[in-house]
Amino acid sequence: MRIVIGSDHAGFHLKATIIDHVTSLGHEVYDAGSYDANPVDFPDIAKMVTSSIVEGKADRGLMVCGTGVGASIAANKVKGIRAAVCHDVHSAHQSVEHDDVNVMCIGAQIVGAWLARDLVAAYLAAEFSTDEDFRRRVRKLAEMDEQR
């Protein structure tokens, strides 16, 4: 898969670990910034990450900020994006399987490198369920996008 990864300054150091891990899993990685630990606004990074997905340049995205919450809020402002904060392995895979999440957000101040690797592996290995209940619900999310 083609994975776009972005972080603000709070997630900058963990992002490097995640990039190495995603690459080791055989995925193509695009780094959308930030490129150093200087303060940056997470909505700007979210815009770059989500643009890559919406434009078809990336299949899924990862965002790392302090808690994951700000990144998730910003990403979900973009039509066609379904972002979720995931700090446990179950949520990391189930968010894709049940909700077709295309951006997973992680809090660098919440999880360490070892858990981040497990979260990313679960997220990237997951596939959207063929169960009609889940498909119907995601179609309803798309309809909500159209009403904006």
TrEMBL record:
<comment type="similarity">
    <text>Belongs to the LacAB/RpiB family.</text>
</comment>
<dbReference type="InterPro" id="IPR004785">
    <property type="entry name" value="RpiB"/>
</dbReference>
<dbReference type="InterPro" id="IPR036569">
    <property type="entry name" value="RpiB_LacA_LacB_sf"/>
</dbReference>
<keyword id="KW-0413">Isomerase</keyword>
<protein>
    <submittedName>
        <fullName>Ribose 5-phosphate isomerase B</fullName>
        <ecNumber>5.3.1.6</ecNumber>
    </submittedName>
</protein>
<keyword id="KW-0614">Plasmid</keyword>
<dbReference type="InterPro" id="IPR051812">
    <property type="entry name" value="SPI_LacAB/RpiB"/>
</dbReference>
<dbReference type="InterPro" id="IPR003500">
    <property type="entry name" value="RpiB_LacA_LacB"/>
</dbReference>
<dbReference type="Pfam" id="PF02502">
    <property type="entry name" value="LacAB_rpiB"/>
</dbReference>
<dbReference type="GO" id="GO:0004751">
    <property type="term" value="F:ribose-5-phosphate isomerase activity"/>
</dbReference>
